[in-house]
Amino acid sequence: MSLLPNTFVKGVHDEELSKRMEYRTLGRTGLQVSKVSLGTATLSDLYGELDLDDAIAMIHKAIKAGINYIDTAPYYGQGRAEEVLGMALKTVPRQAYYIATKVGRYEKDLVKRFDFSAKRTRESVEKSLKLLGIEYVDIIQIHDIDFAKDLDVVVNECLPELVKIVKEGKARFIGITSYNLAVLKECVKRAPCVDIILAYSRHTLLDDTLKGYVNFFQQHNIGIVCASAHALGLLTNAGPQPWHPVADDVKVICSKAAKICKEANIELGKLAMYQFMQLEGASTFLVGMETCKLLDINLAAYYNGLSKKEMEILQQLRTTLFTKSYNWDGVEMEEYQRALSKAK
């Protein structure tokens, strides 16, 4: 049983559920964050049509259950996710949750997608606060630093602006995110102001590369946010969205896994969620959800683990399909570079 965190508010949270949730310290920030946290890319058009009422109900239900860390970004629906989140949080006391948003990644158009300048960074923070309806965020993160022209613009321009924003009280701590783990490591070495890192799809049934970086981040007292249990939708019975960057042969493997799960009346996403949370050293496990049903599935994997049948299927998938590491390293970067070259 966990002690209740500082974010606990009687009447807002379910005390018994909150006591069942584990809370961990997020690196040197000192924030006590729930082991399961809420990602909001799913509150945008990136994952199909959104049932707004169900999404808002899911956010309230997640908070009531003791989830106190929520992650969002301007890129998710070009502000739509922040807007929906702002609607849901209107009725929730500010002290009842921690919220993280991002700067740096914005547009659907590849050529205009990234901007790590100080000017755009400040504009983005102001806009996010307005959409969220709050006066400050707990964490402000630079979104996908691997897409910066080079790390110099991140270290010498974007981060110093975020330091100013923290001093102004509009954010409390600073983070960086990336699919490329080596870039996160390099940035931490160069920028002592970084408090947390977010790595996504790097501790899943497909790829456990993050394991090899945990010691480094812990040595630097960096909070680790392990994100995307389902590898951006790949590891679900429903399958990925058309935009998913992974190679077709990997999509086929995941489709076979989903077929096995469907035939056994099991949700692949639940198995993925269970596997995801086995990483030692992460402070919180961030998972995107947009419906109450998905929230229930993911919390069931956390609270109850897997049934005997589910464990058997998971073991079967590990030994027959997920037998080596699969990723999409460099795929999005190549697409981005091609778009930039074409635009020139």
Cα shape: globular
CATH class descriptor name: Alpha Beta
> Which structural category fits the helices and strands?
alpha/beta
Query: Remind me, CATH topology?
Result: TIM Barrel
Strand content: 5-15%
Helix and strand succession?
HEEEHEHEHEHEHEHEHHEHHH
Domain NADP-dependent oxidoreductase: 36-317
GO molecular function, one term: L-galactose dehydrogenase activity
Pfam family, one: Aldo_ket_red
List the helices and strands and how they pair.
Elements lengths: L14 H6 L2 E3 L6 E3 L1 E4 L12 H13 L4 E3 L8 H10 L8 E6 L14 H15 L4 E6 L8 H17 L3 E8 L2 H10 L5 E5 L13 H6 L3 E5 L20 H16 L4 H9 L7 E5 L3 H13 L3 H13 L10 H13 L1
Parallel strand pairs: 3-4, 3-10, 4-5, 5-6, 6-7, 7-8, 8-9, 9-10
Antiparallel strand pairs: 1-2
Helix pairs in contact: 2-3, 4-5, 9-10
GO molecular function: L-galactose dehydrogenase activity
Pfam family, one: Aldo_ket_red
Overview in brief:
The protein has a single domain, classed as TIM Barrel, CATH 3.20.20.100.
Task: Tell me what you see in this structure.
- InterPro entries: AKR, LGALDH-like, NAD(P)_OxRdtase_dom_sf, NADP_OxRdtase_dom.
- One of its GO terms (molecular function) is L-galactose dehydrogenase activity.
- Residues 36-317 form the NADP-dependent oxidoreductase domain.
- The chain starts with 14 loop residues before the first helix and ends with a helix.
- It contains twelve helices and ten strands.
- The longest helix is centred in the middle third of the chain and has 17 residues, at 151-167.
- It has one domain: NADP-dependent oxidoreductase domain (TIM Barrel, Alpha-Beta Barrel).
- The protein has helices at 15-20, 52-64, 80-89, 118-132, 151-167, 181-190, 214-219, 248-263, 268-276, 292-304, 308-320, 331-343, and strands at residues 23-25, 32-34, 36-39, 69-71, 98-103, 137-142, 171-178, 196-200, 223-227, 284-288.
- With 344 residues, it is of the alpha/beta class.
- α4 (118-132) crosses α5 (151-167).
- The strands form two sheets. Strands 3-4-5-6-7-8-9-10 form an eight-stranded parallel barrel, surrounded by four helices. Strands 1-2 form a two-stranded antiparallel sheet.
